[in-house]
Protein 1
Amino acid sequence: MDLVRHYLDYNSTSPLSQSVKSWLVSGDVFFANPSSQHHLGKLSRKSINQVTEAILKTFSLVPITHKILFHSGASEAFSSFAYSFGVWSKQSKKKLLICYSDLDHPAVTSQVNKSWDENVLFLRLEQNQDFTYNDDKNLAEILRFKSDYPDLIVLYHHLWVHNEVGSVASLENLKKFKAIQDLFIHVDSVQAPGKIPDWKVLSVGDIFTFSAHKFGALKGVGFSIYSSSLVLLPFITGGGQQALRSGTENAMGVKSIELALNDLALIDFKINFSRKARLEELLSKELSGIGAVLSSDSKISNSNTIYFYFHRISSDVALALFDLNGLMISAGSACSSGAAKPSAVLMHKGLSAYAKNGLRLSLPFNLNEAELSDIENKLKIIFNKIRETNF
Ligand SMILES: Cc1ncc(COP(=O)(O)O)c(C=O)c1O
C-alpha cells in the first residue's frame, strides 16, 4: 500500500485553495493584458480593480486612506520599498535609518548588504528570548539617532508572525514608534493570513506586505497595502502600468488572491490552536532528552507553526527521515535553498551547538482529525526509529 504523506510545510508555500482550484478548472481565467484597450483587456482591468476593492474591504480599509501595489511577492516588495525610501532620503538630503532584526526573513536582512549611499544608516533591533521586540531599548536607540540627525527618516521593519517559530509580535506595540516624526513602519505580514485570528486587523503600520502563495493563491504574486499619504518612487520602471511598478500586470494571479482570501473565512482557529497544541505536546514528550520544542517559548504564538530541534541529528538528516516516513516538513527559514545553514532562531536562543539542527512543522489551514491522528502515529514511528538507532 502506498504511504500516506502529509504536507506540513505551509509556511514555505501552501497548496492552491479550493476556490482557486475550481476557478482554474473552469478555464474562465483572465489572460489578456489589462492595459489593452479591447474587450478582453478591459475585462482583465475590471477584474484587477474589483480585486483591489475586495482586498481593501477584507481589511476594512477604504481607497481614500489606503492603496494597493501588486507585485511578485514579499522579496520584491522589501527591495522596492527600501529603494524608494533610499532615493527619497537622498533627494531630500536627509539621512535614512533602516531598522531590522536578525530574526527577520532574508528578504529584509539582505537589504543591509546592498550598496547604499552613505546617507543610509542601519539599526539592528533587539529581540528578547521569548521573541518579543525589546521596545524600550529599540525606541531609545532610534531617539538617539533622531537627536544626532533631527530630520532623519526612519524605515522600521516589523515582523508580525515569525516564519520559523510562529511567534506573534503585536502591532499595537508599534504605537509608541509611530509617535516619532518621519518614522514609517513596514509590516512583514506574510505569515499572518489564516495563521492568527486577527490577521485582518492592520491596526498600526504604514505598509503591510503579503505573499499570495502563502495562503492558497498562485505563486509569483503578492500585494502591499500602503497608506495613501506616503510618497513612494518606483523600483521597477518601464511602461508605467502601476504607477509604482511597471510591467504587465498579473491579472490571473491577482484574481487568485481574492478567491484564496475568501477561503480563509472557513478556518476554525479554535480547532487549529488545539490541534497544534496536541502535536506540540507529543513532540515535547518524544523529544525529552534528545532535543526540544522551541516555539512554545514565545508568549503569543500562531495557530500552525511548531519549531523544534534534535541535539544530535542535523536538520538535513532528520528531514530525510521524516520524509521517508510520510511527513514533509522543513528546516530553517521558510524559503531557503534547502541546504542546512545555521538557524538565526537557534543562535538567538544561545543554542549555537544545535544551530544546524532546527526543524519546522507548519500545519495546513484545515487539518482534520483523521489526518492529525495519522500524523501523530507517524511521529511515534519516527521517534521509535530514532531511539532504536540510539541517535
Ligand atoms: C516572513 C516572510 N517574509 C518574507 C518572505 C518572502 O516571501 P516571498 O518568497 O514570497 O517573496 C517569506 C517567505 O517565506 C516569509 O516567510
Note: The pocket of pyridoxal-5'-phosphate is lined by residues 73-75, 105, 107, 163, 188, 190-191, 211, 334-335 (CB under 6 Å).
Protein 2
Amino acid sequence: MNRYRKRIVSALMSLLLTASPLMAYASEKAEPIVFEPVSEEELLRNDLAEIGENKLILIEDGQTDFTIVIPENASDPLREAAETLQNTLKQMSGAELPVVVENQLENAEHTIRLDEVFGTERPADEELADGYRLVIDNTYVSICGQTQVGTRNGVYAFIENQLGCLFLTPDDTYVPQHTTVCLVKADVADTPATLWRDVYAYETAQNHWAAKLRLNGIDVESDDTDKTIEQLQYEGWGTWCHDCYDYLSPDDYFDEHPEYFSEKKGERVYTYEGRDAYLCLSNPEVFEIVKNSLAEKIAENPDQLYWDFSGNDNYALAGCECAECKAADKAAGGTGMGTLLPFLNKLAKAFPDKYISTLAYLHTLKAPKNIKAEPNVVIKLCSMPGDQASSYLNGANKNASQFKEQVEEWSKITDKIVVWDYVVDFAHLLLPFPNFAVQAQNQKFYEDNNIIGVFHQASRENGGEFACLRAFVLSRLMWEGSSMDVAKCVSQYVTAYFGAAAPKILEYMNLCASELSAGDKTLGLYDGLFAHYKSYLSEENVRQYQDLIAEAKESVAGDAVLTGRVEEVELSVVYATVLLPEITEEERQTAVSRLKELCETHDISMVCEWESLDDFLANTLTATVASSQKALKRPYIIAVSAVAGVALLAAASVLIVKSVKKKKKKAG
Ligand SMILES: [Zn+2]
C-alpha cells in the first residue's frame, strides 16, 4: 500500500514539476486586450456644445470674436500649429479665428494665446521637458511651454484633448462637428512620460505628422522633400549609431597606425568578414583623436544634444582582442563595455553639456560589472532578439525575459537608457502582427527602469500593416504613460477612421490577438506565416479574417474613402492568403492578382524591408510555400518511418528469439 502511495505522490510531483514552467507561463502571459466600437456620442464629443457655468464659450452658433495670438518670433512649426488650430476650428464650426502676431493686437481679451504673449510666463517647472501649461479662463485660453516646442505640443494636445479631434494619418484628421464650442475651465501642466520619443516609420516622417503626434525624435522643421526618412529621423542627435569610423577613419589612419584598430586573431584589421571592424579603445591616442573629432562635430552642429559613439554592425568580430582590451573586457564580466564604457565616461567628462551615447548591442550588450556610467552617458539598449507577444514587464518568454534582465542590469549602472524596440515584422511588412496588447506593459516597464527615451522601430516603407494606427498609439503612450487605456485609444481611432466598417475591423483585430494569445508563445520581428500556422495564421483563421473583411467592405459599399481604408486591412489578409501552404494553386493565383492590384492602388512597392513585391512574387513566394508544404509532410514521413522501424525491429527480434531457441534446442 505504502509503495503505491509513494509512487502516486512521486508521479504527481513529477507531473507538477514538468507542468510548473507551463503554469508560470500561463499566469504571466499578457492577456489580449479587447477592442469595442466607441459610441457615436462619445466620438462626437457632444459635451463640447453644452454651455455651462464652469465653461468658456469659444464659439456660439458658428460665431466668435476670439483671436489666435502668436509671438513675433514664432518659429515656423509654431505658426503651422496655430494655422492647424485655426483650420480645425473652422472645419468644426464654420467660425474662422484670425491668427495675429501679438504686437498687432491691443486687447488681450477673447484670445487663444500661444507661447509668451500678453504677459504669459513660461512655466518654471523644470520637469516639464517639452510639455506645457494650459489655462482656460473666463476670457482667454493660454498655452505655453518652456520653449516653443513645448507650446507647439500644447497646441496639438489641445486640438485632440479639448476639441476631441484625432490626428489619424499624415493627411487625415477626425474633427467632430459643432457650431457651438465650449471649454471646461482648467489650469493644468502636462508633461510627457518619456523624454525622447520616436516612432521610426515612413508615415511619421510625412507632412509634419510627427509634430501632431508630439514626437520629438523627428525633424518637423524641414520642408526638404528630397530628405530621406533617415535624414528626417533622429532629431536631437548629432550622430546616431555604428559610427566609430566617423570619428577615426581607416582611410586616414590604418596605413600608418594599424594599432588604432581592432586586433583579430593576432592581426590588426579594419574590416572583418566583409564588414567594418572596430577601434582599439585601450590606445590613448585613439581617445585623443575621437575627442578632437567630436569637438569639431559639435562646433559644426552646436544645437544637437545627443552624440553617439558606437561600434560597427559586425556580428562576427566581438571587439578588439589585444591584451589590454581583452583584460579590461574580462574584468568587466566578459563584455565589450569593459573598454567602451570607461572610454565614453572620459568623453562625457570632456563634454559635460552634451549627452554622450552608445549602443548596447552584440558584444557590448551586457552591462559591465563594477563600472558606473557618468551622468551624461546615454545607453541605447536594443531589444534583440525581441518579442511582441509577451511584455518586458513580465518577461514571460525567453526573449522578453532576456531583454528584461539586460534593462534591469543596465539601470543599476545608469539612469539614462534609451530603449530601441522593434515593433513590426521586418520580413513581412504586410502580415497581420497583433502586438497592441503588450505596449502599455512595456511602457510601464520603461517607466520603472529609468528609460529616458524610446525608439520604436517600425517600417521605413509606405503602407505597412496598421502603420498609422500603430504610430498613433505608440506616440500617445509615450506621452501619456502606461496608465493610458490602449484598448480605448485603438477603439476610438478605428471607430473614427473606419466609420461603419469599424465593428468588423475591431472584430478582426480581436480575433487575431486572441488567437495569438491562445497559441504561440512569441511574436518575432522576422516571423513568416508558417511560424504561426498552428495559431492566429492558420488557414481556418485566415478564412475567418477574409469573411470579416468582406463584411467590413459591404458595410461601407459606395463610400470610396472608407472602402480605401478597409482595403488597407484587406491587404494584410490577402498577403497572408498567398502564403497559405494548403490552398489550391488556383486560389493562390487569385490572391496574388488581388495583392498586386491592392499594392498598386495603395502605392506599396516593398513587402519586406529588403524585398520588393515584384521580387517576392517572382522568387520568394514559391520557395516559401514549398518549404511550408515540406515541413507539413515531415511529421507524416517521421511517423511512417517510425512505424516501419518498429515493425522491422519486431520482425528482427522474432527471428533472433527463434534462432536462439533453435540453438538452445540443438545445444540441449
Ligand atoms: Zn585593443
Note: Residues 263, 280, 282, 320, 322, 324-325 surround zinc ion (CB under 6 Å).
Protein 3
Amino acid sequence: MNDDQENKQQLIDGLNADLAREYQAIIAYVNYSQVIKGAEYMTIAKELEKHAGEELSHALQIAKQIDYLGGSPTVTPEPVKTSKKAKDMLQFDLDNELVTIAHYRRRIRQAEMLGEYALCEILREIVTQEQEHAIDLATALGIDVPAIPKLDGEE
Ligand SMILES: [Fe+2]
Ligand SMILES: [Fe+2]
C-alpha cells in the first residue's frame, strides 16, 4: 500500500471505531432515558431520549461515509456500562461524549489531510452536537464540562 492508501485505510478504521461508539451511545441513551429514576432527573431523562435519536442519525451518517470510502461499516458496539444510580449513568454518558469528541477532532484532521472536505463538514456538525450533549450532561450533574481527554500519541 502507498501512503495515500494507508491513510485512507486509517481513516476508514477510525470511522468504524467512531461508529462503534455511536452504537454505544444509542444503546446507553435508550436504556438510561427509560430507567433513570427520581423527580429531579425527569428533565434530563427527556433530554437523553432526544440524544438517542441524534446518535442514531450520527451512526447513519458515519456508516454512509464508511461505505462511500469503500469500507464496510461495523455491526459491533463498544460495551455499555449499567448502574442503578442516575448520577453514574450521567457520568458514563459524559465520559463517553468527551472521548467521542476527542476522536472526532482527530478524524477531522485525518479527513482534512486526505482532502475529504465534505466528510470534514459532516464530522464538524456531528462534533458540535456531541459538545451540546456533553454540556447537557455536565449541567445535569451540576459541574463544568471537563477538559477533552488526550488520545494516545497526542501531546
Ligand atoms: Fe454521536
Ligand atoms: Fe453524543
Note: The first helix runs from residue 3 to 35.
